[in-house]
Amino acid sequence: MSQPTYRFERPAGLEIVRKPKLTVAVIVACRGGQEKLDLLMASLAAQSYPKELISVYVIDDGSESAIELPRIKPSKSKIIRYKNAPSKWGKTAATNDVVAKIKADVYWFVDADMIFDKDHLAHHMKWHHDGDDYAVLGWKRFVQEWNYTPQTAFEMIVAHKFNQMHTESWGKTLWEERVQRTQDLIHPALDGYRAFVGATFSMKSQLWKKLGGYRRDLITGEDTELGWRLFMEGVRIVPDREALSWHLGYSTVELNKEEIDRHNLPALAQYIPEMKKVRAQSIDSWKIPTYEVVIDVRSCSLSKLLEIRSNLLSLPGTQANFILLANWRCLKERYSPVGDPNADLREIYSWLKGQSSFSFKEISNGNLGIEEIITFFSDEPIPFHIYVDGNFDQIFDGKALTDYLLSSENGCVGLATKQDRRAFALFHPALARARTLGGSTYKEVANTWGVLWLTFEDFNAMSTGSKYRIKRTVNFFKREGKKINSASQLLIFIKKIVKILFRKILK
């Protein structure tokens, strides 16, 4: 990251760079679809970004009829035949393996059924010339029919007649509404990752390598999961409204939504904690939890610890990993069950040592500084990290604290009781960015995201007051109501309301 930035903020009105210097590798993974690929390559040849800085790599992922380079194409274009094997096939594997061997400043990933406006790539690149922590999305519209040839398409794009190529088109309503609602992902909340789509996106090559590319075990939906990791990394995701494109025909999801959802939802839910509704359908544990909780249990009882866990996981579909800090070595010393000075600690260990969601970290006696506490948090894309003193002398509701953290848009929100017991919640995007800047992680979270400390009494008054409950209810109805675009969506909304009311009544 070249310049520390505040939250997801970014410059307004960036202009196309007049003398660009960054090289671009255009990555196109395809299996069949020669006709659409020919049109794509014509639009790539028409790009205004300097030709000498562009290289195109077409990955043929086992097409029945081998893909060929068309006549109209960028001068530096190459086909790579990806050799399939039983455990080595598909877009994620092919893309990861090929891109690992490509050198360029920026990777631009595009689908083979796209056509781009003349300045599409130039609009991507203005962001990458500004900083290292951008992932840029092009703006696309879908078209059902087209009758132009690659030559005609090339000529129209070069002549700035891109918008005249189609008089009828449509966009993804929910996608566009999400972008609009979040001020183009400057305020993305926690579901901003859903706006990341794979038809046309770019990022610095060093960022792609840091993330490790796509998850290889995902056959489809890999862009959604990548968007989650980008968001958790604190990357600024930019949907550029000036980077125009046409998507030729319906998307695979639109044509096969039921089958795609059946395949994708459980696979993606393994890695994306925000998919709570999917996770709530199963009692199994998931690869990435919703919360990572560090608890100093040196002065904690088992009942207090279980109370903290119960309050945190009250919402179906949530999961937590717990890191318990104490002088665990003392349990190896000789003792008597009668009058055991470590009875509470021993009881915690005896009950929880067999549970995979609990791990035990050794610490020495003495007070823990906040910088030391933060070192126990992992780099995994877990949205919320929580710390709480085990002897927190009030009922600690971690769910309420993380809800407040998210709504406040701070990187960290902490609580302190009258007895000076501490608890705080840390947002992973803020943590991830702070760790790239060096120095004090806590100070960098404050500088780039914001830190807020409250007394427990003030927080409790805010989080349980009638005004707060009304605000949360109104925001819920607004958020969920915007998802209704069909009778089936309305039915889902009604069922959700009934479930919430039923849960409240039982409680």
From TrEMBL:
Keywords: Glycosyltransferase, Transferase
Keyword check for Glycosyltransferase: yes
Pfam families: Glycos_transf_2
One annotated GO molecular function: glycosyltransferase activity
TM spans (from-to): none
Gene3D superfamilies: Spore Coat Polysaccharide Biosynthesis Protein SpsA, Chain A
Matches recorded under InterPro entries: Glyco_trans_2-like, Nucleotide-diphossugar_trans
Domain Glycosyltransferase 2-like, chain residue ranges per copy: 26-154
Family named by the database record: Belongs to the glycosyltransferase 2 family.
Annotated PANTHER family: GALACTOFURANOSYLTRANSFERASE GLFT2, RHAMNOSYLTRANSFERASE WBBL
Name of this protein: Unannotated protein
Native source species: freshwater metagenome
